[in-house]
Design a protein that fits this description.
The protein folds into 2 domains: 1-39, no CATH class; 43-228, no CATH class. Helix content is 2%, strand content 53%. It is built from 1 helix and 17 strands. Strands 3, 4, 7, 10, 11, 15, 16 and 17 form an 8-stranded antiparallel sheet that branches. Strands 9-8-12 form a 3-stranded mixed sheet, with no helix packed on it. Strands 1-2 form a two-stranded antiparallel sheet. The mean pLDDT is 86.
């Protein structure tokens, strides 16, 4: 019932604070005698992060009758150090030890991933009222954190269900194309194609079997936006 080497740790001194959260029947402490569990919504453990941000951009003001801009944005996550998960009011009871989650993904109540390298490469051309932009977004894959499923069930060539190691998820690339035209009467028209290559999000052991924190589940999306200013 309680953390420890045995299945039941009733009346064990180290777990007295945890046992106090349970209400039992008159039969006393025991897994089959639980009537109610007191739960508290509290803040999570402290988290310390560090990383490196990079931005490069260059402009060509005279390029084929217009102007050209190209650049790169990138972030490298060095540390994502989360403190230990402990029982509120009893820090000696540890549910999860401290962990550096940089480059990892985990599934507790929800799925989260912490890729180390993310970047965006872009190029834009402007000529008068017309602007064209092409960009590529990149997110590095992540590995399972401690306690996160490291295998998944798949169907092999013979039609049998077998367990396959998850390993590091695939990197995710997304290419976007945007065109913006300034029209008369304070009007803008923008057309775009998001995820040109129709790339699926990486497979991951989440509730939906893919990494929804960094991948795009919509596939290729066409968008037309009309804006009028008054």
């Amino acid at each position: 019932m309680f953390p420890g080497g045995s299945a039941v740790n009733c009346n064990a001194g180290p777990f007295a604070a945890l046992q106090a959260r349970f209400t039992f029947t008159n039969a006393g402490c025991g897994a089959a005698n639980v009537l109610r569990i007191s739960q508290f919504a509290v803040n999570g453990p402290s988290t310390t992060t560090s990383g490196i941000d990079l931005r490069l951009q260059y402009n060509w003001p005279q390029f084929v009758g217009g102007s050209l801009t190209a650049g790169l944005d990138a972030t490298y996550l060095l540390d994502y150090k989360r403190g230990a998960f402990t029982l509120n009011g009893a820090p000696n009871i540890v549910f999860a030890p401290p962990e550096d989650r940089a480059g990892l993904h985990d599934l507790v109540v929800a799925f989260f991933s912490y890729p180390q390298l993310k970047g965006n490469i872009f190029a834009g051309y402007s000529h008068g009222d017309l602007t064209v932009r092409l960009q590529t977004r990149y997110t590095e894959g992540t590995s399972p954190a401690a306690g996160t499923p490291a295998t998944r069930w798949v169907v092999d060539a013979s039609g049998n269900y077998v367990q396959q190691p998850v390993g590091k998820t695939a990197d995710f690339w997304q290419h976007d194309f945007i065109v913006r035209l300034v029209l008369p009467w304070n009007t803008d028209l923008t057309a775009s194609v998001q995820n040109i290559a129709n790339t699926d999000p990486p497979d991951a052991p989440s509730q939906y079997n893919y990494d929804y924190t960094k991948g795009n589940p919509l596939g290729r999306v066409y968008e037309l936006d009309f804006k009028k200013r008054f």
